[in-house]
Write a structure and sequence with these properties.
Rossmann fold, 3-stranded antiparallel β-sheet, alpha/beta, 6-stranded parallel β-sheet, 9 strands, about 300 residues
Length: about 300
Amino acid sequence: MDSTTRIALLIDADNVSVEVLRQVLHKLGLSAARLQHRRAYGSVQKAAEFAEVCRDHAIRFLPSTFAGPNATDIAMAIDAVELVLRQPVDEVVIVSSDMDYSPLIVRLRELGCRVTGYGQQGKSGRDIERDYERVYDQFEVIGLAKVRSAARSSSRAAAPLETVAPAAPISTRARRPAARVAIPVPLTVPTEAPAVETPPVRSTPSRRRPAAKTPPAAKALAPLAAAPRALPVAVEAVLDACPDLRGGTAVRLNGVAVALRERGLLTKSGKTTSFFKKLEAHFALLPIEKPESVRFLGGAPAGD
């Protein structure tokens, strides 16, 4: 009777990197288990990224052509249960940093299958790791730092191989420094320019022009021109409720609506778009067809 452990390797390519998958494959290769099923799931973009490692390790990549954030998770969960029910599988290895597989892990263990998980450091938070320890038979977090250190050590180990080839013999004559030849440089004798007598300049007393006097009417209007234009009371109330609008950047209508309702400027049943259309001289709704954000145009009305 064959006592070799039969493993179904399922990879969530949307939640781990290629380097992490290579480390997992190395760990599984050191064991005496047999990878009976090797499947990877992810988007079409991830299929190109994982193409090399899947080709090197005979992994079937099943791209998800359906829209939605959980399309990959659902496809992998269906295949996992189907493989355990139809094929003699002793252990399922899930390579993912997603917490959505907890119900799947519990179901696979109920079917009598051992479940092992590998996650990526940085994507698997401490809360996820603690929860995974409760549902997985074994869960391990793989760090990318190990991959970088291994790459450095391999490059250092490969460096001496480049110097194994014997170097060509160098003759002793080549080592002698070449004789320096002095190149004569023509000497140029600077010639003095003939002195030119300049007639003395008579100093004339400078006459200062009187400063132009500012008319009293301009002095009176200067403070008025420098002072900013006062905003309407309703506009100031909106800016006080939503200070982020003062910078002129677009702000989401949902957040603005909450702030306006807290200040009592907008009723619970009032529409934010109708509210700002009354103040269209100072605020702009973006985009025009289906507004999702609002932007403050400044102190001057639009079109000034």
